[in-house]
Amino acid sequence: MSAPVVVLTPNLRGRDGISRLARLVTDSFDEVTVLALHEPMSATTFGAAAAAAVSGCGGRSWQFIAAALARAVIANRQTQVIVTHLHLAPAGLAFTARGASLTTILCGVEAWKPLSRLQHAALNRSARLVAISQFTSDRFKAANPACASRTINVCHLGVGVLAESYQRPDGPPSALIVGRMAGDERYKGHDLLLEIWREVAAAVPGAVLRIVGGGDDRRRLEQKAASLDLTGKVAFLGRLDEKALHREYERCHAFVMPSRDEGFGFVFVEAMRAARACVGSRGAAGEIIVDGETGFLVEPGNRLQLVDSIVRLLRDRTAADAMGARGRARFLREFTDDRFRDRFTALVPVAS
């Protein structure tokens, strides 16, 4: 008999948002089979208790489809199938033919476009749709009017609680952005931050913008920083491991990412976990940041609001620390991995 839960996902062990979502989902249940399109072609286990059997497909779509069909043959009405990326939803159709229940998770830009025929068919057969933010749900319905009346449950994501205590940061005033620098992800706001940083540094002497992440657009951004005469005012730190990244959250005085098109924003939650005030654009970030209490929200692309928000946090460290403390408390209430599991398992019941 198949495992009660089958997860269909592009990736499981990566550092990208979909992989993190897949791990959250996988760790929410006791017995799970994972079919992962881009994981190496081997059968492994995953999770703290090694409760998940993982079948990687080496990036081969035909292999993924074959694995899904083979697993669907032994599915039944008690099987719960969870798809973490809309593009893989059609692979769930074979399971529904066996009576399994299908849950499709709507994450970000891939859900903000008109559905293909196969995707539409899969969503019609999905017992439930879950969005990682109300922002994503709204944009999905705007792009797909035929689904406007469909019930979509919102289930915010979470991250693990770390035991470390959080100290007031030392050193020169600094803001941190964490995000991949890629040509197809320029919406995250790196360009805008570079363009306004001379104004920030003029208002807050010594202010430094620290940039964490890699990607094919990093070289262009480094050249742009040099052309804007930001030497000594901007630091490109590259990709960091988890410990080094956590130190950067602790080191900064504020976290800022003026992204226009974020489906959720794990990085805001990570900053709040480290008790740091956040600045983000209105949208999905508004479901994480409480404007004026745990940070500031600005209109997408509004340079004046962005400069003002960053300057206020870097100038007034007492106020920034108070916002960070309230953000940490909000994280513990709403955005831990345990809170995600509680919410998600309430939406996706598994037969005992």
Describe the protein's architecture and organization.
By secondary structure, the chain is α/β, with parallel strands linked by helices. It has 2 domains: 5-158 and 336-347, Rossmann fold, CATH 3.40.50; 174-334, Rossmann fold, CATH 3.40.50.2000. 37% of the residues lie in helices and 18% in strands. The chain has 12 helices and 14 strands. It has helices at residues 17-26, 61-73, 93-96, 117-125, 134-143, 190-203, 218-227, 242-251, 266-273, 303-315, 317-334, 337-347; strands at residues 5-9, 32-36, 43-46, 52-56, 80-83, 101-106, 128-131, 152-154, 174-178, 208-212, 234-238, 254-257, 278-281, 295-298. The strands form 2 sheets. The chain has an 8-stranded mixed β-sheet, sandwiched between helices. A 6-stranded parallel β-sheet has the order 11-10-9-12-13-14, with helices on both faces. β3 and β4 (52-56) form a beta hairpin. α6 (190-203) packs across α10 and α9 (266-273) crosses α11. It is elongated, with a radius of gyration of 21 Å. The two termini are 14 Å apart.
